[in-house]
Design a protein that fits this description.
The chain is of the alpha/beta class. The chain has 13 helices and 17 strands. 41% of the residues lie in helices and 17% in strands. The longest helix has 18 residues.
Length: 394
């Protein structure tokens, strides 16, 4: 079949893009033609693509342009199916509805939550409400949506549109059971939502890597408040002086100054190394020099691909018990679950891994086994193609 993917970015930017760029060649190898429509990125990363800058916008004019441009591209490409990943432009999706069976992967919650993440920034709480007018008053008190009214209205309108048009999606793919639950609560039909966890984009090791000579913990991800990076820094301050930490992500100059200030307050600035975003071929090296990955997220992650990559390298993980994390972190087996927003718990469980290397190695072995058994590309592709065929009525 011929599949057209719709995503705002085309590049190695984050988990969604890592998944998409790892998925496309595997689908091609199975004989499925691939086309990507994107707003920003590198066309050379795929064989066939179309750049539509309006995909990243949500104004009325952009919505109209997105509808027109996607209609033109769909008429030209004649795909069997469209796979929506992420776009703010509902006009582009409407063009797909009008012409072809459309599948949505719920990489985040932008079609169920105006803030896209069910997360209150001011209070660092997880939201459990359904989208409605109360979202605006909640934004004032707890800060979830942007405080700029024009943009907040556009995001709210996007979700209300999705709720009205939920049955026009042929199928939804949820990376975890928790993500599926949230979309059902938002009004999407549970019979059309299949849980298909992401696959691990790296090949599992045969056995866990040898731990580094100096105990080292790693944070790998976007340095945004919902990722809990400040709890990582606080946890480092509670660990022995022999432990160093590496933080890798999209760190602006302002964010870097903030993190160093946090580290000085925690008494660990001299043990903290900040690095800019890692290329794909660098991640294996980073994990090979790591005693444990720390995943301190405080929003309901749909899954957490970086956790899969750590397990594939035999690296145990200490992670917040939130969202879809339990799909891959089995407490006491592939690492430790801790309550969100609890740096003391992070430090305590990390210390256990550092003090008992035999336990850490056993967890590393079980992590590798879990990735092979449940998160392999073969398992994912088999399940995803079944979703595609169901969307087409086959």
């Amino acid at each position: 079949m011929k599949i057209l993917h719709l995503n705002e970015h085309l590049g190695w930017y984050g988990g969604i893009e890592t998944y998409l760029l790892s998925l496309i060649p595997r689908l091609e190898a199975e004989g499925h033609a691939q086309v990507v429509v994107y707003a920003r990125g590198e066309a050379a990363l795929v064989q066939r693509s179309h750049c539509v800058p309006a995909l990243s916008e949500a104004s009325s004019s952009a919505v109209a342009l997105g509808r027109h441009e996607l209609g033109r591209i769909l008429d030209e490409e004649q795909p069997d199916l469209v796979h929506i990943h992420n776009t703010h432009n509902i006009g582009a999706i409407e063009a797909c509805f009008d012409r072809v069976s459309t599948v949505l992967t719920t990489h985040d919650y932008r079609y169920a939550c105006p803030a896209s993440n069910f997360f209150y920034r001011r209070t660092e709480e997880v939201c459990e409400r359904t989208c409605g007018p109360g979202c605006f008053t909640t934004t004032l008190s707890k800060r979830c949506m942007t405080p700029r009214p024009r943009y907040a209205w556009r995001y709210y309108r996007r979700v209300r549109w999705a709720m009205r048009n939920a049955n026009r999606f042929a199928m939804l793919v949820a990376p975890s059971s928790d993500a599926r639950r949230r979309f059902i609560a938002a009004g999407f039909c549970g019979d059309r939502i299949e849980v298909v966890p992401y696959f691990c984009p790296v090949t599992p090791r045969e056995s866990p890597r040898e731990p580094p000579s100096r105990p080292t913990i790693l944070f790998l991800g976007r340095m945004r408040p919902n990722k809990g990076y400040h709890y990582f820094v606080e946890a480092l301050g509670k660990l022995p002086q022999a432990v160093q930490a590496v933080m890798v992500g999209n760190c602006s100059a302002d964010r870097e100054r903030e993190i160093h200030q946090l580290a000085r307050q925690a008494g660990c600035d001299g043990r903290l190394i900040l690095r800019s975003w890692a290329k794909r071929d660098e991640i294996a090296g980073l994990l090979g020099e790591t005693s444990a990955l720390i995943f301190p997220s405080v929003w309901p992650e749909t899954l957490g691909i970086v956790g899969l990559e750590a397990l594939a390298s035999g690296v145990p993980v200490v992670a917040s018990d939130i969202g879809g994390v339990r799909e891959w972190l089995h407490d006491g087996e592939t690492g430790f679950l801790v309550p969100p927003k609890n740096p003391s718990a992070i430090a305590d469980k990390t210390r256990q891994l550092l003090d008992f290397p035999a336990v850490a190695r056993r967890m590393g072995e079980q992590g590798i086994r879990l990735i092979r058994d449940r998160f392999s590309p073969v398992c994912h592709l088999e399940s995803l193609v079944k979703v595609y065929r169901r969307a087409l009525g086959d």
